[in-house]
Design brief:
The chain is an alpha/beta fold. The chain has 11 helices and 11 strands. The strands form 2 sheets. It has an 8-stranded mixed beta sheet with strand order 6-5-4-7-8-9-10-11, sandwiched between helices. It has a 3-stranded mixed beta sheet with strand order 1-2-3. It holds the Pfam family ThiF. One of its GO terms (biological process) is cyclic threonylcarbamoyladenosine biosynthetic process.
Length: 276
């Protein structure tokens, strides 16, 4: 371990904001030391060396916080419209462990809005395509794709040891079940929903009931997205707010949407906060 630390110190370039480890040196040291790039990233962050891929984070996220993100474990339920953007952003942010849950395959109607979809990946499982994308962007991230439906039955098992769950589902009844599972395992939940020009986001901790109160006695399985559909931009906006909320929860900083729902109207460019 001391030898690896020495190699990292030797390789790190120092600028006005601290030490940076280039990707070229990152993989070279991993290869020479016969350890994973994930292990090298962990050792670097523990020793105050920032992997250069995160250098534009530094005015917003300290190296101690970057280490905390690396040590965090997040589950994303749904790898489609919302989930694809959430996964992309969590990966680039540097969240170290991702569990990705989705039973579906990519279909042609996904191409208008689901950032992970492509013509070559039609009929491929979304969770597996998402996992491949994670590794292409950030090989230090540990990723576990689960090609299965989330349910009350398998939820606790699939969320074992996670610090946070992100809701990227598309039906109300399953969302309510997901909220219950998160309560049962005492894990925060970041909820997001989209429909046409509109969206919503909230952050719910285990002792809270914002999602249940918001949906009230709604009986429909699907929300209004089944009628309005979704263009390309709505999931990108809502997912980005979800990831910002996730970052704040994981780092325990800033003001989150606890006990509030942010309602987003991109047609009239109106953002409203409702206290629940």
């Amino acid at each position: 371990m001391e030898i690896i630390r020495g190699r990292l110190e030797q390789a790190a370039a120092t600028d006005s904001k601290g030490k940076l480890l280039s990707w070229e040196d990152h993989i070279l040291i991993a290869k020479d030391s016969r350890v994973s790039v994930r292990k090298i990233e962990h050792i670097a962050l523990q020793n105050g060396i920032m992997p250069a891929k995160y250098q534009r984070n530094r005015n917003t996220i300290t190296i101690e916080e970057q280490l905390k993100l690396f040590q965090s474990k997040v589950a994303v339920v749904g790898c489609g419209g919302l989930g694809g953007y959430v996964i992309e952003e969590l990966t680039r942010l540097g969240v170290g462990t991702l569990t990705l849950i989705d039973p579906d395959i990519f279909e042609e109607h996904n191409l208008n809005r689901q950032v992970l979809s492509s013509v070559k990946d039609l009929k491929s499982y979304k969770a597996k395509v998402a996992a491949k994308r994670v590794k292409q962007i950030n090989p230090a991230v540990k990723v576990r794709p689960i090609v299965d439906y989330y349910s009350l039955v398998n939820g606790k098992e699939n969320f074992e040891d996670v610090d946070l769950v992100i809701d990227a589902l598309d039906n109300i009844s399953t969302r309510l079940d997901l909220a219950q599972t998160c309560k049962d395992i005492s894990v925060p939940l970041i909820h997001g929903a989209i429909a046409g020009w509109f969206g919503q986001v909230t952050t719910q901790y285990p002792e809270e009931h914002t999602i249940e109160k918001w949906y009230g006695r709604v009986k429909e399985k699907k929300g209004i997205e089944g009628v309005l559909g979704n263009p390309s931009f709505t999931p990108a906006v809502v997912a980005s707010i979800q990831v910002a909320e996730a970052c704040k929860v994981l780092l325990d900083k800033g003001e989150t949407l606890r006990n509030k729902v942010m309602s987003i109207n991109l047609l009239d460019m109106e953002f409203e906060l409702f206290t629940i």
